[in-house]
Amino acid sequence: MPQEVKLRIALECRIDDPRQGAGASTLSLAHFLSAGGGEGQEYTFLVHEDSKDWLAPHVFGPCKLVGIPRRRSEGLRKALRSVAPLREAWRKFSRSGDRIPASDGYVEAEGFDLVHFPTQSAYLTRIPSIYQPWDLQHLHYPEFFSRFEYLVRERRYRAFCRQARRVCVQTEWSKRDLVDSYGIDQEKIAVIPWGSVLDAHTPPSPESIRAAVEKFQLPAQFFFYPAVTWPHKNHAVVLRALQRLRAEEGRTVFAYFSGAPTPHRRELESLARQLGVSAQIRFLGYLPAPELRALFATATALVFPSKFEGFGLPILEAFQAGLPVLCSHATVLPEVAGAGALFFDPDSPAELAERMKAVLDDPELRRKLASRGRETLSRSSMQETAAAFRNLYRQVVLEARAEATAEKASTAR
Prior knowledge:
- The chain folds into 2 domains: about 5-195 and about 380-410, Glycogen Phosphorylase B (Rossmann fold); about 200-375, Glycogen Phosphorylase B (Rossmann fold, 3-Layer(aba) Sandwich).
- About 45% of the residues lie in helices and about 15% in strands.
- The protein contains 16 helices and 13 strands.
- It has helices at about 20-35, 70-80, 85-95, 105-110, 135-140, 145-165, 170-180, 205-215, 235-250, 265-275, 290-300, 315-320, 335, 350-360, 365-375, 380-410; strands spanning about 5-10, 40-50, 65-70, 115, 130, 165-170, 190, 225, 255-260, 280-285, 300-305, 325-330, 340-345.
- A 7-stranded parallel beta sheet has the order 3-2-1-4-5-6-7, sandwiched between helices. It has a 6-stranded parallel beta sheet with strand order 10-9-8-11-12-13, with helices on both faces.
- Strand 9, helix 10 and strand 10 form a beta-alpha-beta unit.
- The protein is globular and about 85 Å long.
- The two termini are about 30 Å apart.
- The model has no long low-confidence stretch (mean pLDDT about 90).
């Protein structure tokens, strides 16, 4: 009896900065597709040739990693990416930003059955595809984007959604947003929640926790917020809440922030100086997984004040670490956090200050929140996320094959 031919799935992971949330989510998916045994499928993760290390340890079993050299324009764009004036000049004079990217031909030449775009970056291809627009933030907060960025997002996201056989999101809120904003048929949208991405990493040892406490001079109590310093992440409301607690309660409360820096960080540091809370905060920058896990293990609570999210992975990470969560009630966050968090208005420093004070002063509240968080987390896992994608891959490929067969038969008649 002939052996069943495996479905060949390409996952497009050529992203410039894997330190952000899209990188963490892709890494965890790679880890659990690798660990799952394949089930009649094999997966090829496509990365930049000069950027393999972030994903390589998590690709094994039915998965493999392929490094693809950057095109010259990509290399120049990467070099200019961190220099704002040069980046804007590149955008102005290059035509790469005002067109919809097309495939470089690799996935077609290799004959993949399906290409999955697990981040918002994608390209036009004749291969059946799954596209994940993690959020449509530009439609809700256009002030956080330049006119150029807004137009590029809008044009590309719509095109990639039209092209895809399935558009995948993580929450029902995001599904409704896609239906309302882009008019996408609900049947075309797959909702696949993520689990905690910490599952892909080794738990912190007592030694690594002690090393982090010493390295970062962590106080006995502090709030932790792991997020890139984009404006919508709303670090400013935390600074203002710290100022209120000191001015009105006489309390010196500390907050530690991790995540890759952006130009907006300078504005936050300036605001901290104006409010007189500079000594109460630390921006730690990007942290490798062992140090990140150590911060989760030692913080008093996670504070998550974002104004807009497509999911909110750190909330699930906090639940897994047994950390109480203070969370804004914006967009998808009530759906993700459920009963496991204390919610607050992301525009209210006073309300956040009240929540912070309550968590600091009440050990029983911290215990209850941690317990509710673990219960919420028990309803999802990265194993289930990977299994859902395996099922979706098979469904999409079989649909595409059936349509191709029917079209061929119709043509023959």
